[in-house]
Here is the input.
Amino acid sequence: MTDHSIEISVKGKWIRVPALDVNGRKVVVRGKWIRVAAIHDEFWQESAIEDPGLWVRKLKEQKLGALHADIFTFTQKLPATLPKYQYPMEWDSVAAIRLTSFKDWWEKLPQETRKNVRRSQKRGVVVKVKGFDDDLIKAIASVNDDSPLRQGVPNIHFGKSLEQVKKDEGSFLDRSDFVCAYLEGEVIGFVKLVYCGEVAAILNFVSKVSQFDNRPANAMIAKAVEVCDSKGVSYVTYGMFNYGNKRESPLRQFKIRNGFEEILVPRFYVPLTTKGRLYMKFGLHRGLLGILPPTVIAVGVSTRANWHGFKRSMSRCSSILERPNRKRQMERSNPPAGSNA
Here is the structure.
């Protein structure tokens, strides 16, 4: 067991933080009022940790400093859905496709989803697996720069340099695939799949907002499932199904329409200090999404999206007013992207 520091990505920015190395895996501690220790990149690891008691003992030895934690959390990994340990436990709501065959998945999809995949093909979208090279890095940067907003919030990858994009997407390359959607030779979306034993986990999934009518997202999911089926993968996961008490969202509906379902996986929370035990007693370790009622969360999400949309529209108005009138008149002669003009 040794102390190290590692770089982690927080809201799209890379920062260096202290880390505890236990049996080759890194533990990082986050939080200000309640400090929670967790396995770094746990969702993308090939297997769950063994002997969690060792991790608990090593963390309890960190009495002071940046690696001092109040709670240690870890999860089991699919297909292990039955609790193995006696520690306090809650359920992770994983969004997953139980993959027996591509045909079985396809036949269970809603008719509208199958239509969207076919519509994408008819409109010239071609989906294929691409290697990680300079061309792909440029294509990913182009996809990231298509819109400054994603799902109603600022796009944290908008405007990044090629070096930053390369660093963001350069993890787990020895067990990853990039599934890309092309239209007339241009990449209009990509999915990064990371293989973790029986599971293929979607690490990144982005398509150009301007290409929504061509349905690249549906086409990429279909290709990703086909690729996973050819590799004998049992589950395809795409983050969480429910994020705490946050229930309804466009992303959740997209997952449902594309065959993802909720699978509950044990997540353990081990109190390391008296403060940690108190926080767990009152459920404060779950964060705001785990405490607030669904209706309050829905109002907050809607308000946030409207606020960012308003700021974006005001920014556009300001930029138009600042440009010469002659230039604005010339731009009006060109139809907006995605229009039928």
About this structure: The chain is about 35% helix and 30% strand. Residues 324-341 have pLDDT under 50 and may be disordered.
